[in-house]
Amino acid sequence: MKNVPQTVLVTGGAGFIGSAVCRHLVASGKYRVVNLDKLTYAGNLTSLRDLDGNPNYVFRKADICDTDKVRKILADEAVDLVMHLAAESHVDRSIDGPMAFVTTNVVGTASLLQAVLDHWRSLGEEARKRFRFHHVSTDEVFGDLPFDSGVFTEDSPYKPSSPYSASKAASDHFVRAWHETYGLPVVLSNCSNNYGPYHFPEKLIPLVIANALDEQPLPVYGKGANIRDWLFVEDHARALEAVMTGGRIGESYNIGGRAERTNLEVVEAICALLDARRPRNGGRSHLDLITYVTDRPGHDRRYAIDPTKSEQELGWTPLETFETGLARTVDWYLANGWWWRPIREQRFDGTRQGLVAAK
Ligand code: NAD
Ligand code: DAU
């Protein structure tokens, strides 16, 4: 039997959640982490500078669509476990350019599964038994809920609305198919909206913080009535370790923070935090920057996760409330302009139109 630390291949480890996972797994002292990432616009190795030189961390640049290269990395690094996060992740981008989502999220996941299946088959009996392929997915595969009722359970039907969520739904189905057909030991998780440090400033929370600090409009789609269920990213990273190590093979686990908020409530909470921490010149509230803009096509009304199975089977609960997590997030963006300012200056001007123009 191989001695700890076990080697975990994390795909998409240079992204928002992946970098939190790499930091969490290495800090635990239980794992050696191999971060496999293509470094798209969303990948950023500066998010991992705390791990530079750490003997339990290695970066390997690769595209999950490149089955041969991934197969070689799995063998060279003697990988024991795989956690798959690499994806195109932004719904607005999927509306403007869906094919990149099909390529990475669907074809990429199937290509990765082929490489992982070959690797798993090459292992000895004990290592094969301990091996897991953990697919990290989203609550968006379940579609949307009415404003006033219902929650997503692991048995909710798949009903994706956007090209992004359709591509993630397809990837979930491929992962289950590789389990049912080839016996690959897989486990899946479907999580609600994450927020926290190192979140790319095209997503609602970091976009609003950065725009507010730059005195730019805070774009709220429609009336701001859509509801998301928010989870602090470090709580998600802890949950993912629990699923990877304790989840039952072939099962999926819903992960969420029981923290439903309308988008307007989220934006107002950020404004209140910034009013207290970084008041504007002239004494006006950041609330004055709120600007209602054209709604996202196919905009899901509400997401709400029932995390009971994860709580009961895995013993996981979030450590942050939405209020404590949001305060930590705002403080992080106030203190870490070195990370997000270059992203905004080079690639993105802080509006939805700017996002489209910058691609
Ligand atoms: P992200 O966009 O911040 O990061 C994605 C990472 O994947 C980047 O580092 C990128 O370079 C890499 N990548 C993209 N295409 C690749 C390819 N072909 N090969 C190798 N690497 C590639 O995404 P995120 O928000 O950190 O999300 C990570 C995962 O978690 C995704 O699968 C997403 O669907 C899922 N998820 C996200 C949330 C959320 O709120 N952000 C919630 C639930 C689930
Ligand atoms: O639910 C999990 C999903 O959460 C993940 O699977 C996705 O990868 C992740 O991007 C996120 O998707 P959303 O579309 O919910 O996140 P986003 O931050 O883009 O938007 C959150 C809400 O805020 C959504 O209702 C749209 C709205 N919004 C977003 C932006 C960027 C605005 O009102 N204004 C904006 O400028």
Structure description:
Its EC number is 4.2.1.46. Residues 9-328 form the NAD(P)-binding domain. Keywords: Lyase, NAD. This protein has helices at residues 16-28, 67-76, 91-96, 99-122, 125-130, 163-182, 204-213, 233-246, 263-277, 308-314, 322-335, 337-347, 352-358; strands at residues 6-11, 31-37, 57-61, 81-84, 132-138, 186-191, 193-195, 218-221, 227-232, 252-255, 260-262, 290-293. The protein has 359 residues and is of the alpha/beta class. The protein has a domain at 6-199 and 229-259 and 302-321: 3-Layer(aba) Sandwich (Rossmann fold), CATH 3.40.50. The strands form three sheets. A seven-stranded parallel sheet has the order 3-2-1-4-5-6-10, sandwiched between helices. The longest helix is centred in the first third of the chain and has 24 residues, at 99-122. The chain is globular and about 70 Å long. The chain binds nicotinamide-adenine-dinucleotide (NAD) and 2'deoxy-thymidine-5'-diphospho-alpha-D-glucose (DAU).
What name is given to the CATH topology of one domain? Answer: Rossmann fold
CATH class of one domain: Alpha Beta
CATH superfamily of one domain: NAD(P)-binding Rossmann-like Domain
Write down the Rg.
Answer: 20 Å
- For the secondary structure, the number of strands is 12
Approximate helicity band: 40-55%
The stretches of 5 or more residues where confidence is low (pLDDT under 50) are 349-359
Neighbour order of strands in the largest sheet: 3-2-1-4-5-6-10
Counting H and I runs of at least 4 residues, what is the number of helices?
Answer: 13
Give the cofactors and ligands.
Answer: nicotinamide-adenine-dinucleotide, 2'deoxy-thymidine-5'-diphospho-alpha-D-glucose
Q: List the helices and strands in order.
A: EHEEHEHHHEHEEHEEHEEHEHHHH
The biggest beta sheet is recorded as:
7 strands, parallel
Can you tell me the CATH architecture of one domain?
3-Layer(aba) Sandwich
